[in-house]
Amino acid sequence: VGLIGGYVLLQLLPTSLNYLAIIPSKTIPYVWTVFTAGYIEQVLPGAIGSSLGLLFCGKDIEPVWGRKEFLKFIILVNSICGILAFCIAIGLYYVTGKESFLVTPLSGFHGCLAGFLVALKQLLPNLELPMCFFWKIKAKWMPFFVVCFSSIMAFIVPDSINFLPTLVSGMYVSWLYLRYFQRNPLTGLKGDPSDDFSFPSLFPAAMRPVTDPVANLFDRMLCARSRPSEIALPVSDPTKASRRRERGERVLEERLAADHGVDTEAPVHTAED
Fold first, then answer.
1. What is the DSSP letter of 135?
2. Backbone angles phi, psi at 199, to 5 degrees
């Protein structure tokens, strides 16, 4: 409703784009645009695609996280993506000298959609996502594929470069949040320290000589300082959290069973099992 409503508002009041989208030359004093731009789609295909992407990813993510955490993730990623998009546009202007980076309106939900791909990699890394025709790709490779595809398109279609900073920012911000700051309702601890969700896991194994030093830097800056304080944190309402987790896992398992023709009556194994 919000995404379609934002598009309709632009059609009824085209001048509202100046007050809702990020236009770097006008962002100061219109600072609120870095928070509103993520929900404003300027074209109908974008509004429809973002809405479908939200529904498609949300039905896999929300049952596990809960509504409150799902909404928090959307607001957090969209807000930080807006700030980074503004900073990157200013930086590109100073590097290239092109005024188009200052006057082009930046908006759209694609930063958050990119963040959803990172969340699906964490929750369902082997889930096969449809791409085109009969081709599918596993969720764990989707973030890397989207970055590569968007980078190539930026050279083929110059206007598409405006989407690249937001896409990359969305993936980067969402991974940082899920890796180091999101609180696990079952353990009460922050983040996901598993190797399957490390920074190198976002890239092919051949790139590990480059990605491993970056991962170590992240751990030294964020992980080492946050772990000691987490140990003493109690688990808040573990029964409710466990039921929500089991309900989410049941929904996800039934969906995977339907996709692969597996009997949906198989027992559900929880994290505790």
1. E
2. -60, -45
- With left for phi above 0 and alpha for psi between -120 and 50, is residue 136 left, alpha or beta? beta
Q: Helix (H, G, I), strand (E, B), or coil: what is residue 136?
A: strand
Query: For tokens 């100061």, what's the residue?
Result: 28
Whole-angstrom Cα distance, residue 32 to residue 20?
8
- 30 phi/psi in degrees, rounded to 5: -80, 60
Q: Are the C-beta atoms of 160 and 154 separated by less than 8 Å?
A: yes
Residue 23 falls in which region: left (phi positive, over 0), alpha (psi -120 to 50) or beta: beta
132 pLDDT higher than 90: no
Across the strands, what pairs with 136? 130
> Over the stretch 83-116, which tens digit does the pLDDT of each residue have?
998 998 899 889 988 888 888 898 999 999 999 9
Amino acid at 273: D
Residue 136: how many other CB atoms lie within 10 Å: 12
Count the neighbouring beta carbons within 10 Å of the beta carbon of residue 191.
20
Q: Mark out the alpha helices in 157-223 (DSSP H runs).
A: 164-176, 208-218
- Reduce the DSSP state of residue 130 to 3 states and report it: strand
Q: How many residues does the chain have?
A: 273
Please report, in angstroms and rounded to a whole number, the separation of the first and last CA atoms in the chain: 39
Question: If you write DSSP's letter for every residue of 94-114 in order, what string do you get?
Answer: HHH--THHHHS-B--SHHHHH
Sign of CA dihedral 165, 166, 171, 173: positive
SS3 128: strand
* pTM score of the predicted model: 0.75
- What is the four-CA torsion angle of 251, 253, 259, 261, rounded to 10 degrees? -120
